[in-house]
Amino acid sequence: MQIKILQQDLIGPLQSVLRSVGVKTTLPVLGNILFEAEGNRLKLSATNLEVGVIKFVNAEVLEGGAITIPAKTLTEVVSSLSGLEIELDTSGESLNIKAGKFKADLNCIAASEFPAIPQTEAEGFKIPKEIFKDSIPQISFASAVDEGRPVLTGILTEIKEGKFEVVATDGFRLAHKTFSDAKLAGISFKALIPRRTLDELVRLINEETEDFSEIELTTTDNQNQVVFKIGATLLSSRLIEGNFPTWDRIIPSKFVSNAVINKEELIKGLKLASVFARSEANVIRIKVTSLGLQLTSETRELGHQDAQVEAQVEGEELEVAFNSRYLVDAVSSCPGPEQKIYFSGSLSPTLIKPVKEEGVEYIVMPIRIN
Questions:
Q1: What is the pLDDT of residue 79?
Q2: Is residue 369 part of a domain?
Q3: Residues 240 and 255 in one domain
Q4: How many CB atoms lie within 10 A of CB 162?
Q5: How many whole angstroms separate alpha carbon 286 and alpha carbon 355?
Q6: Which residues fall within 8 angstroms of residue 250, CB to CB, at 6 or more apart?
Q7: What's the pLDDT tens digit per position in 56-69?
Q8: Are 297 and 283 in contact (CB under 8 A)?
């Protein structure tokens, strides 16, 4: 393999695929990026066996070929060669790098050692990129990090009757987004996609330099992998098996009070309250009164704080305790300058919605306190 490429054309794609390189692995080749040169383009591939990313880059290919190159080392080298044309030339399992007055030889691994990244020739369906770009950042925080319950580390993704719907929950909170679009008519799809995959999808959408307006989504023949085509990039991922909780039963339909409140003022109050709650499991108390929300928290070591946040309140007065981190995450992710918080009781789920936007909602479970 022998290619020439400008540093600025290579560094972006390198950094994009680097995130999917296997880090903690017993297979050394997973720490490498597969370079394949053919025609007038370069194909970069990386995988950790759960997620795989392929990017196509225009390059001057003097001689075709393939080799896997240590990902971190190559990225650091290319990052330091700003503004130069880089020549990559392989000899056996060695890569020679030339750029300006710089030369280096890098030990590599044969391309034959690299595992195949799942792809499919089947025709998929296309989804406007804005749907993923806007929806996933609003809800992905609510999925579980702990692998103890794998289904909760995924995001339920469903398309039916012209609607795109995503749901995430870790058992203590829930985030739900639905989006209607005429372009989705006739599409039927349901899968549990890992949160890490959809977070990576959004990053790749934002980084893609090729002009595109839609993402093509396909599943492999055995239905256990999903493949996204994002401009000149492919993202593949395993799907999570198992039954996602019956999430719609969690959303309350009856409420004892509600409050319309300024988002930024509420976030400010919650963050101040959380300072005094860190050594007490992040517990803060919210008292709903006719004047607004009274936020209190205390610890033996630090002391006590009490803050009042103005709100338009309807209904009964009550007191509810929450994990402040869960509440801050939901309020911060909820779009718009004003939010409406629906309280269904001191020990019942609390619902948060934006005032001027439909289709997005958050549930936070309260904490039982003595």
A1: 96
A2: no
A3: no
A4: 14
A5: 20
A6: 169, 174, 349, 363
A7: 999 999 999 999 99
A8: yes
Tokens of 285: 């108390």
Summarize pLDDT for 86-131 with one digit per residue, the tens: 999 999 999 999 999 999 999 999 999 999 998 877 778 999 999 9
257-262 and 312-315 strand pairing: antiparallel
Tokens 């692995």 -> residue: 25
The tokens of 99 are what? 């750029």
Kindly report the pTM of this predicted structure.
0.92
Interatomic CA distance for residues 25 and 55, integer angstroms: 23
Return the closest-CA partner of residue 246 out of 158, 338, 167.
167
Whether the predicted pLDDT of 222 surpasses 80: no
Q: With a cut of 90, say whether residue 43 has pLDDT above it.
A: yes
Domain tally, the chain: 3
Q: Rounded distance, CA 236 to CA 118, Å?
A: 6
Q: How confident is the model over 307-317, as a mean pLDDT?
A: 96
CA dist., res. 328 & res. 275, Å (int): 12
AA letter at 302: L
Domain-ending residue, one of 247, 275, 302: 247
What does the block give as tokens for 204?
């790749």
**Residue after which a domain boundary falls, among 227, 247, 267:** 247
In a shared domain, residues 285 and 258: yes
62 with 140, same domain: the answer is no
Note the pLDDT of residue 279: 73
Q: CA dist 74 to 10, 32, 44, 96, 231, Å?
A: 11, 9, 12, 11, 24
Identify the CATH number of the domain in which residue 339 sits: 3.10.150.10
Residue 229 is part of which domain span?
125-247
Residue 370 lies in a domain: no
Beginning with the edge strand found earlier in the chain, give each strand of the sheet holding 338-343 in spatial order: 189-194, 154-160, 163-169, 173-180, 360-364, 350-354, 338-343, 257-262, 312-315
Q: Work out the number of other CB atoms within 10 angstroms of the CB of residue 127.
A: 21
Q: Flag whether pLDDT at 177 surpasses 90.
A: yes
Residue 100 has which token pair?
A: 């300006």
